[in-house]
């Protein structure tokens, strides 16, 4: 009811001590600015680092591992004397291929939960550098699918990834491996397959994942070339990589597919549980720092309000004498605190946005990430929401306790004390 | 006219700090509408203590206080504030104006708090009250630009803004020179006789007291003597 009047009185109190008010508001502004900038930057970095691995990781990977069958033929014997002591069981001559891959891929592409499927054929090779052989892995990929689902093109630092499809017997070498072999785009490298075949492949691109160990070993070729290297038919596929619309479904679907298609399935959460942990901890730290800043600003407001109330005892007494109730006085000082929080916080949100925008323009060329040129910043509106809510909550609390004190001031004590 | 503006029944008050001392011993009296009473007595006899109890600001007492026939005993703090706002105008020894606001706004504050009238109406009334007290020309100044006598008149105008039932004063002329004191007295008298408001004024000034309708003389927390002066 009396709110406009209370705000008027609050405003006059604020203006009467405008210097302190300004300092308190600047405290809030500073903390909100830093909170926004810190969280935006941290979250941007998190996304970048997570993307480094997660973007390139399929949500579900279907593969067939060479491993002993869970039930050996001898176990099926149900006659008498059924103890067996067979040791050192070896796998039969079977390659880690996925059986009936074509049908599985076709079925997966019709699954509404699946965003895309990319088949892959892995082959172990040796890169021949003069007389020395370097071990390596060649992945045969469908370059268009790979680019669409795993941003493959982003990591090709030289050459055009699509040449993999158009140029026969072509290869995209890992950057580190290419440096070792002293070759560039357009050169020809010779590799030896596990079976001893020697093949010459033309380098159409260089690839940099950002993980040196990977770049030394990994290279890419087309699916068909990889199958040729292995001397297998064009239905030989070792991995089926699946991207889902909602990757939280990954563990469930992995189980489902493993059962349905009789393959092994690895989901993203199992494969990269460490990244989740790292992200959580980094986020936690940034929130902790941000909240600490806000609490410090809250103490500033608390101090100033306490001082203001001490100075304005007469005013409080007189307001009470002319008919303001304790809760009116309390509301008055909470309004004072909240207006400091609102103005300081509002400006802080703007400054935070400005600072984030500034950080987003700082040049940043990580060797690992060829597509990144400036610091990554995540302009998530959520941070601004949290910042606004936090600034209001802390200033409210910072104002509440001094205001409570003011509300119980006994006017008689003040007036008679003169 | 039947219900007295203010009625005190067996008001008893103790101070507990540092030792328990009884300052008021069962005071009983009533103040009618339009009655102008002065409370006199030596320092420490409990005049001011009584006044603050009657003003509802001090609630630590025994006995009953009725304002306009309504007992104050069991009212909550916010309700008492409302009573002060609506029915009691208070004038202190020191002017106690808010320096952040203009004179006019200071006078308007209690009415704005009451919230019964619109802002322009309140402003109009405030001007009227200032006119009664002869200081309407100072309305837009800040209180610290006024003289002591002017400030005290502003404080009285503020006490009058809601047309209270009772006006209480704690030595309202104590800090004023003789001339200003007389001006204030004349205003009080006019309020009682023309506007029919009850006045209860604590004073040290025997001349001031002698001119009122009624003198309540206190000694050691008791009413020693009551005089109707009919001046």
From TrEMBL, chain A:
Domain of life according to the entry: Bacteria
A Pfam cross-reference name: FtsX
Mode of membrane association: Multi-pass membrane protein
Record localization: Cell membrane
Every ABC3 transporter permease C-terminal domain range: 289-407
PANTHER family assigned: LIPOPROTEIN-RELEASING SYSTEM TRANSMEMBRANE PROTEIN LOLE
Protein's name according to its UniProt entry: ABC transporter permease
TrEMBL record, chain B:
Keyword line: ATP-binding, Nucleotide-binding, Translocase, Transport
UniProt keyword Metal-binding present: no
PROSITE patterns, per database record: ABC_TRANSPORTER_1, ABC_TRANSPORTER_2
Record-annotated ABC transporter domain positions: 6-231
Pfam family, one: ABC_tran
Molecular-function GO term, any one: ATP binding
InterPro entries membership: AAA+_ATPase, ABC_transporter-like_ATP-bd, ABC_transporter-like_CS, MacB-like_ATP-bd, P-loop_NTPase
Family: Belongs to the ABC transporter superfamily.
Protein's name according to its UniProt entry: ABC transporter ATP-binding protein
Species of provenance: Hymenobacter jeongseonensis
């Amino acid at each position: 009811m009396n709110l406009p009047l209370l705000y008027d009185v609050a405003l006059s109190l604020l203006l009467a001590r405008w210097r302190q008010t300004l300092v308190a508001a600047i405290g809030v502004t500073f903390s909100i600015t830093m909170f926004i900038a810190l969280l935006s930057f941290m979250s941007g970095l998190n996304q970048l680092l997570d993307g480094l691995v997660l973007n390139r990781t399929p949500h579900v990977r279907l593969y067939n591992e060479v491993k002993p069958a869970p039930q050996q033929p001898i176990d099926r014997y149900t006659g008498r004397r059924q103890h067996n002591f067979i040791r050192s069981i070896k796998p039969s001559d079977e390659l880690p291929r996925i059986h009936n891959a074509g049908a599985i891929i076709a079925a997966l592409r019709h699954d509404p939960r699946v965003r895309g499927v990319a088949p892959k054929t892995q082959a172990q090779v040796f890169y021949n550098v003069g007389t020395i052989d370097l071990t390596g892995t060649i992945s045969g990929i469908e370059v268009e699918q790979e680019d669409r689902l795993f941003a493959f093109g982003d990591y090709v630092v030289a050459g055009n990834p699509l040449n993999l499809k158009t140029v026969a017997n072509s290869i995209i070498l890992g950057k580190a491996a290419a440096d070792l072999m002293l070759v560039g785009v357009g050169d020809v490298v010779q590799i030896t397959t596990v079976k001893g075949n020697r093949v010459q492949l033309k380098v159409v691109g260089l690839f940099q994942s950002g993980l040196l160990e990977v770049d030394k070993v990994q290279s890419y070729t087309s699916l068909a070339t990889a199958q040729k290297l292995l001397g297998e038919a064009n239905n030989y596929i070792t991995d089926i990589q699946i991207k889902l619309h909602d990757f939280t479904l990954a563990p469930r679907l992995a189980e489902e597919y493993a059962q349905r298609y009789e393959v092994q399935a690895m989901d993203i959460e199992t494969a990269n549980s460490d990244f989740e942990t790292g992200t959580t901890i980094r986020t936690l730290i940034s929130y902790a720092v941000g909240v600490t800043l806000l609490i410090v600003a809250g103490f500033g407001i608390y101090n100033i309000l306490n001082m203001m109330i001490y100075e304005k005892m007469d005013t409080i007494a007189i307001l009470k004498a002319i008919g303001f109730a304790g809760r009116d006085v309390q509301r008055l000082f909470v309004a004072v605190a909240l207006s400091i929080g609102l103005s300081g916080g509002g400006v802080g949100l703007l400054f935070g946005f400005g600072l984030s925008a500034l950080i987003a323009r700082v040049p940043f060329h990580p060797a690992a990430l060829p597509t990144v040129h400036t610091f990554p910043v995540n302009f998530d509106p959520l941070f601004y929401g949290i910042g606004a809510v936090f600034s209001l909550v802390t200033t409210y609390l910072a104002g509440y306790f001094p205001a409570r004190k003011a509300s119980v001031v006994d006017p008689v004590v003040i007036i008679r004390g003169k | 006219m039947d219900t007295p503006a203010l009625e005190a029944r067996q008001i008893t008050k103790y101070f507990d700090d540092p030792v328990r001392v009884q300052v008021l011993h069962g005071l009983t009296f009533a103040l009618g509408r339009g009655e102008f009473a002065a409370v006199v007595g030596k320092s420490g006899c409990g005049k001011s203590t009584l006044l603050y109890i009657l003003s509802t600001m001090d609630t630590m007492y025994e006995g009953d206080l009725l304002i306009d026939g309504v007992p104050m005993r069991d009212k909550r703090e916010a309700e008492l504030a409302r009573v002060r706002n609506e029915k009691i105008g208070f004038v202190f020894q020191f002017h106690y104006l808010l320096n952040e606001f203009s004179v006019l706004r200071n006078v308007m504050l209690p009415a704005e708090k009451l919230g019964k009238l619109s802002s322009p109406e309140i402003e109009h009334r405030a001007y009227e009250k200032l006119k009664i007290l002869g200081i309407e020309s100072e309305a837009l100044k800040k209180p610290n630009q006024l003289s002591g006598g002017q400030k005290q008149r502003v404080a009285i105008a503020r006490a009058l803004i809601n047309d209270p039932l009772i006006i209480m004063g704690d030595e309202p002329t104590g800090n004023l020179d003789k001339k200003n004191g007389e001006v204030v007295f004349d205003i009080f008298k006019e309020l009682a006789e023309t506007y029919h408001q009850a006045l209860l004024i604590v004073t040290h000034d025997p001349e001031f007291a002698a001119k009122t309708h009624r003198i309540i003389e206190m000694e050691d927390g008791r009413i020693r003597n009551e005089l109707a002066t009919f001046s």
